[in-house]
């Protein structure tokens, strides 16, 4: 129903919001103000520019003020709107999951391109995403590769509930199984030894020190999704060590890694029996972001 009384234009509401968020120390104040107003009005962001003189109704303005106050506490925009785009797909997110990061798209792209080649020889194609969180990686892989069986695991039941919703949302739930448990242990006892083509993971890899220095928004994300022990390497080491017994010949492990971890992890992987080749893939800034270990 149309709001009877307009009290402020979109343009003025946005300037007010920008100032409010700027005062809260938020660099992306204008952008966040726009995203949140578009969310409240249930329109695309472009609409705000096309209709700067449209008046907000009282209720709309009140709701907008409420979300701005939440954002001013440095709660990430995605937790307020409940969504985040990843690999051009819209994901449901909440405070139980890490908000999918753009850098993780490199991991998905590298994995999908290798699987496109391997699918000619691996039947069935089984892919495991360890620490699936929102299901970002698992759902994208199932979306981009039709003939694939995906298993997503996580230690957190709350995260798995979100991942399941995302699999249903993108209609790939018939090709993804979600299992709860510690790292690769949910794979035990399922006859999966030497049958998996790819083990993919963006595990928690921040060091304790790095975690102490994250921006306030990242501090609102689950700590268990971010910190991988003192040096950040604990989960990465265990995955690299455990993966060979599950990988099929020609298979591989693909891991997202921290900006300063490539050398240590490459050295470590080369000493693990089973791997024939260990490589890293840089991001656009030249930082080695993904480690691939082939069996
Ligand atoms: N895969 C998602 C993504 O890339 O956006 C989430 C990655 S997040 C960095 C790491 C995930 O690992 C979290 O969902 C966390 O709950 C999960 N996790 C933490 N410890 C774990 C463990 N011991 N075993 C399995 N998953 C774990
Ligand atoms: N890239 C994330 C960050 O900088 C860390 C993700 C992770 O630990 N896997 O906050």
What does this structure look like?
The chain has helices spanning 10-23, 29-41, 45-50, 58-72, 77-81, 104-118, 136-144, 157-169, 208-212, 216-219, 234-242, 262-271; strands at 6-9, 55-57, 83-86, 89-92, 126-130, 149-154, 176-180, 196-201, 247-256, 277-282, 288-294. It has 295 residues and is α/β, with parallel strands linked by helices. The strands form 3 sheets. The chain has a 7-stranded mixed sheet, sandwiched between helices. Strands 1-2 form a two-stranded antiparallel sheet. Strand 5, helix 7 and strand 6 form a beta-alpha-beta unit. Helix 2 packs across helix 4. The protein is elongated, with a radius of gyration of 22 Å. The mean pLDDT is 96. Residues 101, 202, 204-206, 214, 218, 226, 256 line the site of glutamine. S-adenosylmethionine (SAM) is lined by residues 97-98, 100, 104, 130-134, 136-137, 153-156, 159, 182-183, 202-204, 224-225.
* Quaternary: single chain
Rg from alpha-carbon coordinates:
22 Å
Strand content: 15-25%
Main beta sheet, described? 7 strands, mixed
Spell out which ligands are present.
Answer: S-adenosylmethionine, glutamine
Q: How is this structure best summarized?
A:
The chain is α/β, with parallel strands linked by helices and 295 residues long. It has helices at 10-23, 29-41, 45-50, 58-72, 77-81, 104-118, 136-144, 157-169, 208-212, 216-219, 234-242, 262-271, and strands at 6-9, 55-57, 83-86, 89-92, 126-130, 149-154, 176-180, 196-201, 247-256, 277-282, 288-294.
Question: Keywords, please?
Answer:
295 residues, alpha/beta, two-stranded antiparallel sheet, 40% helix, elongated, binds S-adenosylmethionine, binds glutamine
């Amino acid at each position: 129903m149309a709001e009877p009384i307009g009290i402020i234009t979109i343009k003025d509401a946005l300037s007010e919001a920008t100032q409010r968020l700027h005062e809260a120390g938020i660099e992306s104040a204008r952008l966040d103000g726009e995203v949140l107003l578009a969310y409240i009005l249930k329109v695309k962001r472009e609409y705000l520019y096309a209709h700067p003189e449209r008046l907000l109704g009282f209720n709309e303005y009140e709701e907008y003020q409420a979300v701005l106050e939440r954002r001013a506490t440095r709660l990430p925009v995605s937790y307020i709107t409940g969504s985040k785009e990843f690999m051009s797909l819209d994901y449901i997110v909440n405070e139980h999951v890490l908000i999918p990061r753009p850098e993780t798209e490199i991991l998905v792209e590298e994995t999908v391109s290798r699987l496109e080649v391997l699918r000619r020889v691996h039947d069935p194609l089984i892919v495991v995403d360890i620490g699936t969180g929102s299901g970002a990686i698992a759902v994208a892989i199932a979306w981009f590769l039709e003939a694939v069986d995906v298993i997503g695991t996580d230690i957190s039941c709350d995260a798995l509930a979100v991942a399941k919703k995302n699999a249903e949302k993108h209609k790939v739930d018939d090709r993804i199984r979600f299992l709860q448990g510690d790292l690769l242990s949910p794979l035990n006892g399922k006859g999966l030894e030497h049958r998996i083509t790819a083990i993919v993971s963006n595990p928690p890899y921040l060091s304790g020190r790095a975690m102490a220095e994250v921006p306030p928004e990242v501090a609102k994300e689950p700590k268990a999704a971010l910190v991988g022990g003192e040096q950040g390497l604990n989960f990465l080491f265990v995955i690299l060590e455990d993966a060979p017994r599950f990988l099929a010949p020609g298979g591989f492990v693909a891991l997202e890694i921290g900006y300063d971890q490539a050398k240590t992890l490459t050295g470590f992987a080369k000493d693990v029996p089973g791997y024939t080749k260990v490589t890293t893939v840089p991001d656009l800034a030249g930082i080695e972001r993904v480690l691939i270990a082939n069996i």
